Amino acid sequence: MQTSMQTSMQGFLSPAKSLPMSPPTPGPTDARTSVNHLLSRAHALPCSKGALAFNQLVQPTARFQLALDALLPILDSTTPAELASRILVSFILYTLYAPHPIAVNPFKSALFGTYLSEREKAVSVANDGGTSPNEQLVWVLWKILRGDGNDIGPYSPSTLARSPLPPKLRAINLVLDDSLYNTIPDLDDSAYHYFQHKRGQSAPSDTNEFTQIPSRVVSPAYSLERDKQNERQMFAVKLLLHARERVLNLSEQRTLLPLLPEVASSRLVTSIDIAPIVAYNPSIAHPLFVSLVSNPIPENNRPMPFVEVLPYLPPTLPTFDLFGRLLRDPTRITVDTVEGYSTVADLVRIRVLGLFIQQSIHWIEQAERDQMEGKISDDRWEKGLQHLCRFFLSLIKLQIVDPSSDTDCAEICSFCLHYARFEEANTLYRVIMMSGSNY
Predict the structure, then answer these.
(1) What is the tens place of the pLDDT at every residue in 139-184?
(2) Where is the composition biased (Polar residues) (predicted)?
(3) What's the rounded Cα separation, in Å, for the pair 67 and 53?
């Protein structure tokens, strides 16, 4: 089965015209009215334009609640809404969290529940030899739940609603692989149960064992609060993505910090995220790293990929700030993947610190060569040297490093002699010498 829209739909769909639409941003009192007006007149626009207009009409902090109040009821099959409107709503709910996997979209269960319900109806009609008018909606939801929702963006809801599908894209052939998406027992938020409850209010019209879906008991523990918690977590993930590109303000930091343990356990954070977050937000990088190493996922060999990133961070003030926090962190580590280290401070001091000092020296020496060859024209290596010497001096004062130990100080002592023209290097060298070391 072809999985991209450009391939599977060629010949019977044509991209919609990009009609100009620049709606003004309304206040909170008339946002819902504006959204309803948008849904009634955006059928001829590309789905991507409709989603963009929704984002322009509604403030970011109000989008989730407005989606619950104004969009989710349209998705319900018991609501008298046009097929084009339901297609547009499906796409908007998808694009609200499109930068992230569909599995973490708080509306995934609503989309999945609608897919099951609409597919059941379409398959029932197909078994009787007919064609259900909702075949196109099933296909759209199938694309979205597979993570291919962006393929729908260039096409208008009205075009999608009236275009016939080839036989291989009929609802009876569109099955979601359990390995690619959650099965029914895995869906745990209130939106899914909302749709299950709606379906249970009417008798099933098809008893074919291929399409019949067993009923399940709805747990009272699942409520709107669970959806709101999902929304908070997704907002935290968005802030973490911003933290890789800019300094977060105090309000954003206060919002993100309490949610870092949940974000760390979501598997959305990767080792390549650490360096940019450290560069812009070391105060966020510290609790994030602690959460990653103290609550790891052993089957994914975590937290070692995150630990292995630390020695190769550049010798800048944010990096030394992070190391200073980690080397004093008493958080206990109890997982097998980092056996032998009782606390975060022990892990960083024993496993990371020595290699970090070595790599910092190499970084400074390479930056100096690059400057001599004209590859760079700033003073990064001089700043790095000054920061490294001051950092090492603070390690001695905090008794994290023993200045009388050849193992701890041999390399840095040689480094200080090489750069003795710098005051910071001279100061550090004198402290080491006064400790009684023999160099």
Answers:
(1) 888 888 887 888 888 888 888 888 877 878 888 888 876 444 443 3
(2) 1-11
(3) 14
Instruction: Report the pLDDT averaged over residues 297-313.
Output: 75
**Residue 220: CB partners within 8 Å, gap ≥ 6?**
none
Instruction: Give the phi and the psi of residue 332 in degrees, each rounded to 5.
Output: -80, 150
Question: In a 3-state reduction of DSSP, which class is residue 42?
Answer: coil
Contact (CB, 8 A) for 112 and 136:
no
Assigned token pair, 27: 């206040």
Distances (CA, A) of 251 to 133, 279, 349: 48, 19, 32
Q: Are 437 and 406 in contact (CB under 8 A)?
A: yes
pTM above 0.90, yes or no: no
Distances (CA, A) of 29 to 12, 309, 380: 42, 48, 52
Distance in angstroms (rounded) separating the CA atoms of residues 58 and 92: 12
* Contact (CB, 8 A) for 407 and 438: no
- Give per-residue pLDDT as tens, 364-375: 999 889 888 888
The encoded tokens of residue 49 equal 């334009």
Query: Alpha-carbon Rg of the chain, whole angstroms?
Result: 29
d(CA 354, CA 33): 61
Q: What type of residue sits at position 377?
A: S
- Which residues lie closer than 8 Å to 342 by C-beta, 6 or more apart? 332, 333
Q: Tell the burial category of 165 from Cβ atoms under 10 Å away from its Cβ (0-12, 13-18, 19+).
A: buried
